[in-house]
Amino acid sequence: MRLFFFDYNKEGAGVSKDAPPKEGIALFGDIFAREFTTLIKLNLLFIVGCIPIITIGPAIGAMTSVTVKMVQDKPSDLLYDFKEAFKKNWKTAFLIWLFAIIFMVLLGKLLAFCITTEGVTYNIATSIIIIIGILFCIILMYIYPMSASINLSLRMIIKNSLLLSILYIKYSFITFILCIALIEASILFFPFTIPVILFFTFSFCSFLSSFCAWSGIKKYILKSEE
User: Fold this and answer.
1) Higher per-residue confidence, 204 vs 151
2) Which of 211, 217, 209, 219 is nearest to 73 (CA)?
3) CA-CA distance, 70 to 73, in Å (whole number)?
4) Nearest CA among 215, 38, 213 for reference residue 142
5) Phi-psi bin for 11: left (phi > 0), alpha (psi -120 to 50), beta?
6) Is the pTM of this model over 0.70?
7) DSSP symbols for 124-191
8) Using CA atoms, how far apart are residues 211 and 226, in angstroms rounded to an integer?
């Protein structure tokens, strides 16, 4: 029978204790495979946490707190950690979300105004606004993970997030593009992507952002504190 079926009672080769720790894509794939079912549950939990709409900010903060623990490879109880992070960090997470909404609305109005102009002014102003918008979104990728993992004032969190978004611009931009691509595809092919939105989109974007952000936080912020 072993000719046709695997012998699951036989011990595998295992991992050598002298093997170097995984990094980069290998580490990402290892954690993602291990936490895949948890990410599905987290996505559903996040959607529930966004009801009513006013709680979107705290729900993002709670979801990020869970995904940061994942990339730190810390043991986690999904429901307990989500609820605790929601209650503990709701004020900071809500203020971050409120600030982000106000900033993006103002940026959108400025872009709409620039569209009414013509010529060189339109091209330059539009390009600057788009760049500012992308940079702001990249900064947000660091703000939530940092607020979930380090006890700092909101001013220092924003300052450090700005610095990390510049220092890690290559990885940050790739992460931003991947998240935007997933969100755009989920919207573009709606309603066919309803299962993807319900079970995957939000938690995967959070996991991807937390993985990118934690690498910079660990390398620059934590070391500087030590």
Assistant:
1) 204
2) 211
3) 5
4) 213
5) beta
6) yes
7) HHHHHHHHHHHHHHHHHHHHHHHHHHS---HHHHHHHHHHHHHHTHHHHHHHHHHHHHHHHHHHHTTT
8) 21
Domain count, the chain: 1
In the chain, count of helices (H) and strands (E)? 11, 0
Domain residues for the domain of 146 are 26-225
Neighbours of 93 (CB within 10 A): 27
Contact 45, 79 (CB under 8 A): yes
Angle between helices 56-71 and 78-88 (to 10 degrees): 130
Categorize the per-residue pLDDT at 24 as very low, low, confident or very high, splitting at 50, 70 and 90: confident
In the block, tokens 């924003």 appear at 158
Is 72 a domain residue?
A: yes
Task: List phi, psi (to 5°) of 21.
Answer: -65, 145
What is the rounded distance in angstroms from the CA atom of residue 174 to the CA atom of residue 182?
12
Q: Judge whether 201 and 43 are in contact, CB under 8 Å.
A: yes
Tell me, yes or no, whether 21 lies in a domain: no
pLDDT tens-digit profile of 49-101?
A: 998 888 999 999 999 999 999 998 888 889 999 999 999 889 889 999 999 99
Number of Cβ within 10 Å of residue 210's Cβ equals 28
Residue with tokens 């009801």: 51
